[in-house]
Amino acid sequence: MHLLANASTAVGSETEELVLHLLVQLVVILVATRVVTVIVRRLGQTDVSGEILAGLVLGPSALGLLFPEISTELFHPSTSTIFVGLAQIGLILLMFQIGMEFEFGEQLGQRKASVVLVSLAGLLLPFSCGYFSAPWFHAQLADPSTPLLGFRLFFAVSMSITAIPILGRIFMELGLSHTRTAALVIGSAAIDDVIGWLLLGSVSLIVAEQFSFVWAAQRIAMIGAYVLVVFFVVRPILGRWLAKDIAKRGGLSLPAIAIVLIVLLCSASITSSLGVFAIIGGFLVGLALHRDRQFVELWKQRVSPLVMMLLLPVFFAYTGLRTDIGAIDGWWGAAVCGMVLVVAFGSKFGGAFLAAKAVGEPTRDALTIGVCMNTRALMELIVINIGYDMGVVPRDMFTMLVIMALVSTFMATPMIAWLMKSERRPVAAA
């Protein structure tokens, strides 16, 4: 196969070859995702687990191992930039939907202090455990020349991240998004990840020797100001306009969808420029509009299916393509990987569980909160990819952290379903 070999033989052929290559990739990803999803559904997992696993199957851990030439030709680097763009847009839209889906105020009531405490405990304990255990892991690496300080900081941040998009998908697919526990978890995870992204930005600058406390203070002040603008300026103006437009047209019109997309993408651009990444901007706008349940339902009917069926599988699959399980070397490598799991799961689950018990949550709900906060998935992959690109997370540790993220995700669905089985609604109603 040489899809790009004759790309410049005729006017416009290079573009057409690129489009053809991209279309073939999309077809393969969607077919693989549907097949794997059917299989994992029978094993009690949600669709998101199948989408992640499909990426691993198509990547160097399976297809690349068995048929390296086909894998290289199929997922040619020429389309990687397009894939990153599609994946990030899909993730922003998903975060927007997650923000709209959860009825925070109604479900949490007076428990906002609980959200903050669970979030901080689920962040500080794993960060500390990761930072102080990192030297031992650094000594076990195949490439111990990796800078120790940079490795410690990135390892600590990787222990701290919670995967909001994955939790949102799991709760929605299990029919649990209406519950108070779901709202508490998503609220805690949102605070957790905002602080985590700030930490990531600070750590990146420390590694690059550009950090200053003035920078951190400026970022925090600007983010706080932007949150106030979204909730006290954008929300009332956009909410009133949407309500009038829906009443006038009898539904969600194309101009209304366009306006919402413009606001959403602008918000994502602003938060990205403030150092907390674009997905937080999507989440903030969704949270600001979540009270208008009519708009939420209309958006889910008209826009969400495209996001769920096309853009999100691209994000999950493309990320899986970058993971190579074969990078772990021998039994000792497997043992070190096991220790990574122990530190990650023990600190994250333990911190969230103890905090939930401290604020008066029943044991079953506290266990659920601990399991949920331990779910890292592809938010974790974003962090470790940045560390890998900066040269402070070597390939073998990168693979171990990927495994940690995936194991935490596959554990989450059956455990959440079991712990919250009495609160489930039919998915169509949820």
Automatic annotation (TrEMBL):
What GO CC terms are in its UniProt record? membrane
- Indicate where this protein resides in the cell: Membrane
Native organism: Enhygromyxa salina
Q: Which InterPro entries match?
A: Cation/H_exchanger_TM, CPA2_transporter, Na+/solute_symporter_sf
Regarding the membrane, this protein is recorded as: Multi-pass membrane protein
Q: Supply the name of the protein.
A: Na(+)/H(+) antiporter
Q: Which Pfam families match?
A: Na_H_Exchanger
Please tell me whether the keyword Transport is annotated for this protein.
Answer: yes
What are the protein's GO molecular function terms? antiporter activity
What is this organism's lineage? Bacteria, Pseudomonadati, Myxococcota, Polyangia, Nannocystales
Positions of the Cation/H+ exchanger transmembrane domain: 33-421
Keyword Transmembrane recorded: yes
Q: Which GO terms describe its biological process?
A: proton transmembrane transport
